[in-house]
Design a protein that fits this description.
The structure holds 2 protein chains of 2 kinds.
Chain A (H helix, E strand, L loop, with lengths): L3 H19 L6 H25 L9 E9 L10 E7 L3 H18 L7 H20 L3 H12 L1 H9 L3 E2 L4 E2 L1 H30 L6 H6 L4 H18 L8 H8 L2 H24 L3 H27 L4 H22 L2 H32 L15 H14 L6 H16 L1 H26 L15 H19 L2 H12 L6
Antiparallel strand pairs in A: 1-2, 3-4
Chain B lengths: L5 H16 L8 H27 L6 E10 L3 E9 L1 H24 L6 H20 L3 H19 L6 H32 L4 H10 L4 H18 L8 H4 L5 H11 L2 H9 L1 H5 L4 H22 L3 H21 L3 H29 L17 H13 L5 H15 L4 H26 L6 H6 L5 H16 L6 H6 L6 H4 L14 H23 L3 H9 L1 H8 L4 H47 L7 H23 L1
Antiparallel strand pairs in B: 1-2
Helix pairs in contact in B: 1-2, 1-4, 2-3, 3-4, 3-10, 3-15, 3-20, 4-5, 5-6, 5-10, 6-8, 8-11, 10-15, 11-14, 11-15, 13-14, 13-18, 13-25, 14-15, 14-17, 14-18, 15-16, 15-17, 15-20, 16-18, 16-20, 17-23, 18-23
């Protein structure tokens, strides 16, 4: 069988599921659940298979490649003008695995959704298809198409299934967060859109095929002009400072599974776009602009860490810590050397599973108590020891404890950063230490100490939540203890990226 | 020796089994953890014999073995492996021996605790991490283990998780040591950037050969020393150690004697050639060590909690080891570390026995326990005497070597004077705690009447440790070393491989001073605290200012708390405010409102009245006409 069909399957299985769910009666919530979890498991299995079937030492080039021409030789389009071209390299292979893990976890955790769960899962599967499509597309047109498909369902998912919160000095309604998220991301997409057409016009090849465009050498001045369009356009989705504020607010308002996908994979699309569209397409522009990105990324890292220490809402704290950790991804990319970019891709995976765990855990408490204010809690460990165990492990991964995924990634980023920008590397390590401050403050405030009688009725996580936690934790431990499968795949591709030293 | 990886692998296996299955195992699996630890200890003895044989053959360069962990071809290859030499061996021996004793002791001390299985699981992981740390052949694996040691210590300090104070102490320990760890990681990365390797022996060779840019080498050395300061609780990162008393007492024994605080000393000893290659670094190490040792000795004089006094005696000892390392006396420092692990473990476990029996740890409420606790009391006294440096207990010989080392060392003799001052102070506060706990009139009769000796599972391990405390120092003599099967005494055996053994030196006047000052100090202590209450009150009233300073630990904790609250957290608040008020409310919402306003203005274009549109058309036609005619002419 042609191996490209595997990618087709990851892309169309979620779409077909969404279509099938349309036909399920609203009242049969159980059928919706069984279908979704089954599909989640199948996608997970396929992603694992694809990750391991990806051959290291393949001799370069894209694997699992498949192409269907859609429009060619019409008007301004030449051969392969617009085609659904899918393929994997060593950077997208771990991303596919990540999507499989987080999406499966998301379906498990969404089992408990009662409110219109059919519609929820339809949007959920469209979003997942968009994510797979973006990671796998080798065509500019379809890259953008799937990118938007992944972003837009967020609006409804947050505005309908989200939650509004009132804080001491301000309040956040779910409608506001959903609107802000969508407007900021769509405005950023305009930049990408402009960039794509500028690239198409400048190359004049009559094709959106990325492999042909990669082979074309763009004029240096054009590269310097076009690169910021991609970096800021994609950077907004990656939480680039100062365009990050959609992210913490979005998390606070989003339902659990959407937070998981949002922080777990969606933000990675931004960083992935910077590699695919920025570094690969416009390497000289990248070389020129990367010092600037390094400054913004360092702001991300330090600013996010400080903002997180002041938060008293679980999700805001995790949201700002995501800003900080996504800053590390951008920092790794900005080094433009092999170790740093390897680290950035590793961090994309590591941060994905770690934050997904965080949100899954917060959801399991929030659904019982309907408050996320950590000052309300004390001694949770006596009521929910397993919850604290998993939350603690995610926290340790977040603060870079060796043996869990975060350390491997951060370490590579720091080594890479020290090569070119020692000050940035030192600030990054400092911010990683700040992570320990806010994580442990939160743990000691909410999880330990004497138990509060208010929470006597709290129940331990459900079996589905435990399953999700174990799944994500296994991914964390896998990468933390044995990173070689990841590093082999990533480094092989990063080595041949243009402009990387 | 090639298979030294087995040593940490055994306790790790114990950890995994206990973590997953302990509720279903008989006795929650403590026998498994203890059994594996005992086997590990025996394997260490086997390795000791191998090392001895290898040295006997001459030309011993340590035994290294490693495996590839990850590889970015040509750029970053990470290997994990083990390296065994004499320094490693000393550490292995101390760690596994003390851990075995502590685990046996805990079967009784922790009996009936609701998280008994978890306790043994974490202790196993703790020991495995420490074994990995000392066996690591490269800095990355060392860092790996270093962090795991920190994690386990946090879990064990916060073991009584229904106490807020325990959670706070655990957090403090982890974050304080992590401040140092930031330094360590930066240091490791700088060294990697300069040398392109993590392998310790290669880095040391390059540092000694002067192949590393001296500016970066200095930076790396200072950063790594910061890491050592954090773990080994050196000033100014010492504040976590006394609070670490919140954990169960066996854990304190483990942390202080074997698995945690000596890691920093080990790191400095291991990397000493690198530190010595940096100008001024030995002086820095000495100064930090001196501040720690003297400060701790004075603070120890005024503390009321028996475990806290012992904790400050650890700080005192660690400072002394750093001073020895600053003078390049690796053998002396390691000898002190070796005997310290015995007497500190016996001090802690004996005080644990006191707490177990009386459920009190304030010395103000104890007293007169000597007759009630016929095994615990002498054990504690022996430990205290060794700590004080009474001849011929083990502490004396180790201190004597350190004195000689500092005397012959390259560092200023002012250091020697300060060390000499610290000796009688140490003896004074150790005398105080022994007298207040075990002698004199019982201060609280209720406590006294209910006191009883602890069960054999507790007293036998501490008796063994006390026995070793009595004799372990004698290994300094060549005859004893040969009798034990080694080819020489301690100093001929334990040395940095690159540097060769130190001479066994005796500086007679230093030894005599040591004996006399300690003796005098104990006599003074006996006079102040042994009899009537009057002299001790007068001692406290001698200088209320100093007393307050000692009692409140020079207010260093308070200063740190202030800095954390006023600087770190305030900065966090400021950033969070900025993010909401400036970035979000002005930046994002402001953009939205500006757009809204523009739309508001623009909507007047669309009035719906035909005359307005007609006017627009006319103006348009005129403008186009003017432009068109303008072009023609």
């Amino acid at each position: 069988m042609h191996s490209g069909y595997w990618l087709m399957a990851t892309l169309f299985l979620p779409l077909i599921t969404a279509a099938v769910l349309v036909g399920v009666p609203d009242s049969r919530k159980d059928i919706v659940r069984y279908i979704s979890v089954t599909v989640g498991a199948v996608l997970f299995a396929m992603s694992v298979f694809i990750f391991f079937a990806y051959e290291v030492d393949h001799g370069g080039g894209y694997q699992f490649f498949i192409r269907y021409d859609w429009l060619e030789n019409v008007a301004f389009l030449g051969p392969h003008g617009i085609s659904l071209a899918l393929g994997l390299d060593g950077i997208s292979a771990p991303m596919v695995l990540l999507t499989g893990v987080v999406a499966f976890g998301g379906t498990l955790i969404s089992w408990k959704i009662e409110h219109h769960n059919k519609d929820f899962f339809i949007l959920f599967w469209v979003l997942v298809a968009g994510v797979y499509g973006t990671f796998e597309s080798l065509d500019l047109f379809f890259f953008f198409f799937w990118y938007e498909v992944a972003v837009l369902p967020m609006y409804l998912l947050i505005a309908v299934w989200g939650s509004s919160s009132v804080f001491e000095t301000f309040s956040r309604t779910k409608e506001y967060s959903a609107m802000k998220l969508t407007i900021m991301l769509v405005s950023a997409s305009i930049l990408i859109f402009l960039g794509i057409f500028a690239v198409f016009k400048e190359a004049g090849l009559g094709t959106f095929d990325l492999q042909q465009l990669y082979a074309y050498h763009f004029d240096e001045n054009f590269q310097k002009m076009a690169f910021p369009l991609f970096v800021i356009g994609c950077g907004v989705l990656a939480g680039l400072w100062p365009f990050h504020t959609w992210s913490p607010d979005g998390h606070v308002s989003a339902p659990t599974a959407v937070s998981m996908l949002h922080a777990g994979v969606l933000m990675k699309l931004g960083a992935f776009g910077i590699i695919r569209l920025g570094i690969q397409l416009l390497p000289e522009g990248a070389t020129f602009w990367m010092p600037g990105l390094m400054i913004l990324a360092t702001c991300n890292v330090v600013y996010g860490a400080f903002a997180a220490t002041a938060q008293r809402d679980f999700k805001y704290m995790i949201g700002y810590s995501s800003v900080s950790h996504m800053g590390l991804v951008l920092m790794g990319l900005a080094t433009m050397n092999q170790i740093g970019i390897d680290g950035a891709v590793l961090q994309m995976f590591a941060h994905g599973v770690m934050t997904a765990t965080f949100f899954a855990m917060v959801g399991s408490v929030y659904d019982q108590t309907h408050t996320r204010d950590m000052r309300q809690y004390s001694g949770l460990v006596h009521r929910m020891p397993l919850f604290v165990f998993f939350f603690g492990l995610a926290g340790l991964a977040s603060l870079g404890l060796p043996g869990l995924s975060g350390f491997v990634a951060e370490f590579h980023i720091f080594v890479g950063a020290f090569r070119t920008y020692p000050w940035a590397g030192a600030l990054g390590i400092f911010a990683a230490a700040m992570t320990a401050v806010y994580i442990l403050r939160m743990m000691s405030m909410a999880m330990f100490g004497p138990v509060d009688d208010k929470w006597n009725d709290l129940k331990e996580m459900t079996y589905l939540e435990r399953g999700t936690a174990v799944l994500l934790l296994a991914a964390m431990l896998f990468m933390g203890l044995w990173p070689a499968p990841f590093i082999d795949r990533i480094s092989e591709t990063v080595r041949v990226l243009p402009g990387v030293s | 020796m090639d298979d030294a990886w087995v040593l940490p692998a055994l306790p790790i296996a114990g950890f995994v089994v206990l973590l997953l299955f302990s509720p279903w195992l008989p006795r929650k699996g403590d026998w498994l953890a203890i059994g594996l630890m005992g086997i590990t200890f025996l394997l260490v003895l086997v390795i000791g014999r191998d090392v001895q044989n290898a040295i006997g053959d001459g030309n011993f360069h340590g035994v290294a073995r490693s495996w590839q962990w990850s590889n970015i071809p040509g750029v970053l290859e990470i290997r994990m492996g083990t390296f065994v030499d004499q320094i490693t061996l000393v550490m292995l021996f101390c760690v596994t021996f003390v851990a075995t004793m502590v685990m046996v002791y805990s079967t009784s001390y922790m009996h009936g605790d609701r998280r008994y299985g978890w306790f043994y699981a974490i202790v196993s992981l703790f020991v495995a991490s420490m074994l990995t740390l000392v066996l690591a052949d490269n800095l990355l694996l060392l860092y790996f283990a270093w962090e795991l040691v920190g994690l386990c210590s946090m879990l064990l300090i916060g073991y009584y998780n229904d106490k807020q104070s325990a959670a706070e102490a655990a957090k403090k320990a982890f974050i304080t040591t992590r401040v140092g760890d930031v330094g360590l990681l930066i240091g490791i990365i700088i060294l990697f950037t300069q040398t392109h390797t993590f392998n310790i022996q290669q880095i040391l060779a390059m540092a000694e050969a002067g192949d590393i840019n001296s500016k970066w080498l200095t930076g790396a050395a200072i950063c790594m020393f910061a890491g050592a300061c954090g773990k080994s609780a050196q000033f100014p990162l010492h504040v976590w150690l006394p609070d670490a008393m919140e954990g169960p007492t066996p854990v304190s024994a483990l942390i202080h004697a074997a698995t945690m605080v000596v890691a920093g000393v080990y790191l400095v000893a291991r990397m000493l050639p690198l530190f010595e290659a940096v100008d001024g670094m030995p002086e820095l190490i000495t100064v930090i060590g001196l501040i720690t040792t003297l400060g701790a000795a004075f603070i120890g004089l005024a503390q009321r909690d028996i475990k806290r006094v012992v904790a400050y005696s650890t700080l005192n000892s660690l400072g002394l080891m750093m001073v020895a390392l600053g003078s390049g006396a690796v053998g002396a420092a390691m000898l002190y570390l070796f005997v310290h692990s015995f007497f500190k473990a016996s001090l802690f476990l004996a005080s644990g026995s006191v707490i177990h029996a009386t459920e009190q740890q304030e010395v103000d409420k104890l007293g007169g326990l000597w007759s009630k606790m016929p095994i615990t009391a002498p054990v504690f006294a022996i430990g205290a005497a060794a700590m004080a440096g009474v001849i011929p207990l083990s502490g004396f010989w180790a201190k004597d070597e350190i004195l000689a080392g500092v005397y012959h060392g390259p560092v200023n003799h002012a250091a020697l004077v300060l060390v000499l001052i610290s000796l009688p102070v140490t003896a004074l506060y150790m005398t105080r705690v022994v007298l207040l706990t075990f002698f004199g009139e019982p201060k609280d009769h209720h406590v006294h009447e209910h006191a009883h000796e602890s069960p054999p599972l507790m007293t036998v391990p501490i008796a063994i440790l006390a026995g070793l405390t009595l004799v372990a120092g004698l290994v300094i003599f060549e005859g004893v070393g040969k009798a034990l099967g080694f080819h020489s005494g301690w100093l001929g055996f334990v040395y940095n491989l690159g540097e060769g053994p130190e001479e066994f030196k005796v500086v007679w006047w230093l030894s005599i001073y040591s004996v006399v000052s300690v003796g005098a100090s104990i006599a003074a202590g006996a006079w102040i605290w042994g009899g009537a209450a009057e002299p001790s009150k007068r001692a406290a009233a001698f200088s209320p200012f100093l007393y307050r300073m000692f009692l409140n630990r020079f207010y260093i904790d308070e200063v740190y708390q202030l800095v954390i609250d006023k600087v770190v957290l305030a900065a966090g608040q400021a950033v969070a405010w900025f993010d909401r008020a400036v970035v979000n409310d002005s930046g994002v919402n402001g953009t939205g409102e500006a757009t809204n306003y523009l739309a508001f203005l623009a909507k007047y274009q669309q009035t719906g009245k035909i005359p307005n549109y007609a006017l627009g058309i006319v103006i348009g036609v005129v403008v186009i006409a003017i432009v068109a005619f303008g072009y023609r002419t």
